[in-house]
Design goal:
The structure is a single chain. This protein is an all-alpha fold. The chain has a domain of 88 residues. Helices cover 54% and strands 0% of the residues. The termini are far apart.
């Protein structure tokens, strides 16, 4: 059965990026990969990343799904919910709740639940994020997966694959993804340095999530590092983005 296949293994391959197509409810596991970002070629030498620490993954927002306050009970509820609805049509509005449940469940697996049988399992967390990111195309899952790829959590580090997932999330206004993608591009972390484009994403993230102090600090560090031409070009790119150009 597809559900048992899902819980057995979710495989995300890095060989050959495939543009996400409308998902099909056929064989159990989907392995959609995001498309390559424009002009991504082998990495070149680049400045060191700004010394701004990323925040820890946010705690599960249980109120979003009216979950039990007890973490273990919430975990069991999410497991049952996702097992039942894992093959739901991703184009239905209700599928958003399923995707969010997968992300919440992934967050539990990422850190584990203290004083419970649920131990930290980054590999399983990665599998859940990958499924939600590909089949349901959830921006929060895409961000989490990109972050794990970048930091090498639950698998080997892969900056190029991280940039692909973060790019998808950034286009859907996921501000944490915009900030992290901006840092990668400003510094050329595993991808060619595109400082102006990186600054654009950092500006979008800063303006979209002003309460996130780490994003503001990341933007300030990157802006000081950029040349005057890069700063000016970033404003041109920002204007195009706001007018609807998301290339």
């Amino acid at each position: 059965m597809r559900t048992s296949l899902f819980w057995a293994c979710v495989v995300v391959t890095v060989a050959g990026a495939v543009s996400p197509a409308p998902a099909q409810k056929s064989e159990g596991i989907r392995t959609l990969m995001p498309p390559l970002m424009p002009q991504l070629t082998p990495p070149v030498a680049s400045p060191a990343p700004p010394t701004v620490a990323l925040p820890p993954p946010p705690p599960p927002k249980k109120d979003a799904l009216d979950l039990p306050k007890d973490d273990l009970k919430a975990f069991e509820y999410l497991r049952a919910l996702t097992a039942k609805h894992v093959d739901d049509d991703p184009n239905r509005p209700e599928s958003r709740a399923v995707a969010k449940a997968l992300v919440l469940l992934g967050n539990y697996y990422l850190k584990g639940i203290p004083n419970s049988p649920v131990q930290a399992d980054p590999k399983r967390a990665r599998e859940l994020f990958a499924y939600a990111a590909s089949y349901f195309r959830d921006p929060d899952a895409q961000y989490q997966l990109g972050r794990l790829d970048l930091e090498g959590i639950g698998g080997p580090p892969n900056a190029l694959q991280a940039a692909r997932w973060l790019s998808l999330a950034a286009k859907n206004e996921q501000h944490q993804a915009q900030a992290l993608l901006g840092r990668i591009l400003v510094n050329g972390e595993g991808v060619p340095r595109q400082a102006a484009r990186g600054l654009m994403f950092l500006m979008l993230a800063r303006d979209g999530a002003p309460e996130e102090a780490w994003i503001g600090a990341l933007f300030d560090a990157a802006f000081k590092q950029a040349s005057a031409d890069e700063q000016a070009q970033s404003l041109v790119l920002l204007e195009g983005w706001l007018k609807g150009s998301r290339n």
